[in-house]
Amino acid sequence: MIARRRQVALALTALLAAGAACQAQDQAAPARPGHPAPADADGFTLVASGDVLPHSSIIDRARFDAGGTGYDFRPILAGVEPLVSRADLALCHMETVYGANGDYTGYPAFKSPPEVATGLAATGYDGCSTASNHSLDDGADGIRRTLDALDRAGVRHAGSARSEAEARTVTVLRAGPAKVAHLAYTYDTNGFPLPPGQPWAVNLIDENRIVADARAARAAGADVVVVSLHWGTEWQDAPDERQLALAQALTASRTGTRPDIDLILGTHAHVPQAYQKVNGTWVIYGMGDQVAGEMFNHQGGQDPRGNQSTLGRFTFAPPARPGERWQVTKAEFVPQLFDVDAGRVVNLNRALAQGADVRGVRDRIRDVVLSRGAAQDGLTMGR
């Protein structure tokens, strides 16, 4: 099995090498330079991907890619840059906080190099959710360093905050002609208490609060409200009962006839989970780990599912009449793999088309994603 895995890794490495030869209510930030005009001038495409979780091996790889001076995360993410950069709006999940002055650590208390933010920006990400169970791994200082670095890179953020005013401010991003509000919450912070006097530092999952925030975002002018949730049971392919119940409640919430939330993006479980249309709204229960070192499950075994993920891509069209919701006219998922040997994110369909033997991995991810009937609601596998 080890020899077989190395053969696949070498094939993927060769393919990768060949391929490489507003936050204020009415102050939506413009798209960063480099993003194309929307293919449909009236609508937009949104892509979202899973956990960025730099273990020590990832940090070492980024240092190697930088030639031993500094850290370069751009090559790690280059395999998805074509997908991400072509979207009108691209969202990631930054699971860890950033350290400083070379004090960088992996599991269990993460402190990542701030150059991660530069790599995300270069890949084309416009914003990231930052609420996770690791948000307080280095207290309030970790949050401050992380959000400062994302700001310097031009990547917006939602889910953690440096001040009460920031915590109360809706993150609004431009996507073609639309204003998209991004909200983010986590189930817990690994037992770390919120910093003294800063109960607003990390958004915790609370159904009533999420609905209230979504309604406030809509009242502030958001055309589309996207909610990122760090939730679920680790290493479980199927969504757990809490995920199912919360998805039902959030997607059922309406103001008049219009849903308060237009899309739910799930992270945390370390494995890909199903996509499902719930009460007419798309829910991704879990996208999986986009970037992570070798992952070990609760039984202590190395588990390749921990390096598998999906990227969701949704095409939105404006409402036929004012006051109605923006409709998802096309829903897609793209299966991905983090090749731990090459240290690269791999688009599995692209790799398969180029001759890599990854069909089994691709098909396993597809089966999980479609396990709750999403194909009947129009979800397709994209490239």
TrEMBL record:
It holds the Pfam family PGA_cap. Residues 1-24 form the signal peptide. Residues 45-294 form the Capsule synthesis protein CapA domain. Keywords: Signal. Transmembrane segments: none annotated. Belongs to the CapA family. This is CapA family protein.
